[in-house]
């Protein structure tokens, strides 16, 4: 029961972060991205294994293929980067990614959100 409550709380926190950033909830990539973040948050071994483990696991969950997951996540990040909340993007990615120059890769984006959530847990 406690594990389920923690999972729901994490789901809520990740969803709120994605909404703050500006990732539209109506696109498939939003769901793929949320699931990828949750999986990486719960299992650090996904770091460095996006194509071999994370994307296939997300694809299985949504009954789709790896390339659809990768493209969907990339699209969600691109939309957030072009239309999202600049202040939040700067707050999260400001030290590592230049907003004006380039958007983060899928793995950078997911890792930064996971790190942000884990740091909040320490407070």
UniProtKB/TrEMBL annotation:
Domain of life: Bacteria
Location of the Sporulation initiation factor Spo0A C-terminal domain: 15-117
Gene Ontology terms: biological process: regulation of sporulation resulting in formation of a cellular spore
Cellular component terms (Gene Ontology): cytoplasm
GO terms assigned for molecular function: calcium ion binding; DNA binding; DNA-binding transcription factor activity
UniProt cross-references to InterPro entries, sorted A to Z: Sig_transdc_resp-reg_C-effctor, Spo0A_C, WH-like_DNA-bd_sf
Listed name of the protein: Sporulation initiation factor Spo0A C-terminal domain-containing protein
């Amino acid at each position: 029961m406690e594990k389920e409550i923690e999972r729901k709380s994490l789901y809520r926190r990740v969803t709120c972060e994605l909404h703050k950033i500006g990732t539209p909830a109506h696109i498939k990539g939003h769901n793929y991205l949320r699931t990828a973040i949750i999986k990486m948050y719960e299992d650090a071994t996904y770091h460095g294994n996006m194509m071999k483990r994370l994307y296939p696991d997300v694809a299985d969950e949504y009954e789709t293929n790896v390339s659809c997951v990768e493209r969907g996540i990339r699209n969600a990040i691109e939309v957030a980067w072009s239309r999202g909340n600049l202040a939040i993007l700067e707050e999260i990615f400001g030290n590592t990614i230049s907003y004006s120059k380039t958007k983060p890769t899928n793995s950078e984006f997911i890792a930064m959100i996971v790190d942000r959530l884990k740091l909040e847990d320490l407070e």
